[in-house]
Model the fold of this input.
Amino acid sequence: TQLLEQSPQFLSIQEGENLTVYCNSSSVFSSLQWYRQEPGEGPVLLVTVVTGGEVKKLKRLTFQFGDARKDSSLHITAAQPGDTGLYLCAGARAGGGADGLTFGKGTHLIIQP
Amino acid sequence: DAGVTQSPTHLIKTRGQHVTLRCSPISGHKSVSWYQQVLGQGPQFIFQYYEKEERGRGNFPDRFSARQFPNYSSELNVNALLLGDSALYLCASSLFGARSGANVLTFGAGSRLTVL
Done:
């Protein structure tokens, strides 16, 4: 059962445009992480958000954790072809249980030059 | 410094066979986790080991087993392979075990298993 729903599943936009990817759940998470995965590679951690309402910026990427710690968003400003990849959100359960990270299905992002 | 290394990178097996996948964590990391990523899906948690003990297990059948060695490397074993076991198997290492709320995982490139 997927507890994290990501939307959209696929997104293809032109270089220079802005975009937002969403990660939603009915469950509360103690922290939420965003990863980017390229073909033939493992996911690479972009950011971890821990506090409800937290906003983190990584160059042109802005990550937000919902106030209730059930959802998150990733906003990319002025997208570039190098941003192309599979973006995954992953939550750690509240309470710190030993059940690993719960991943969403991911958003496949293609930035056309 | 070397990252998380996994072997083999690709392998093909037939139904009913057994497979062993290997993982070497980042030096100094004591926790290893295994994830299965089926095509088109996000990774799904299989096991976590910390200090050579199993600390977590996902919703996978008993055909899946793992262990962690004194040098913190790990093996994932899958018996009686099914077609549905075809996937990318990812190993991730971290400093801490699961109880750290902001545990940072570093993933390897994975082992691509195809079951025919």
Notes: The mean pLDDT of chain B is 92.
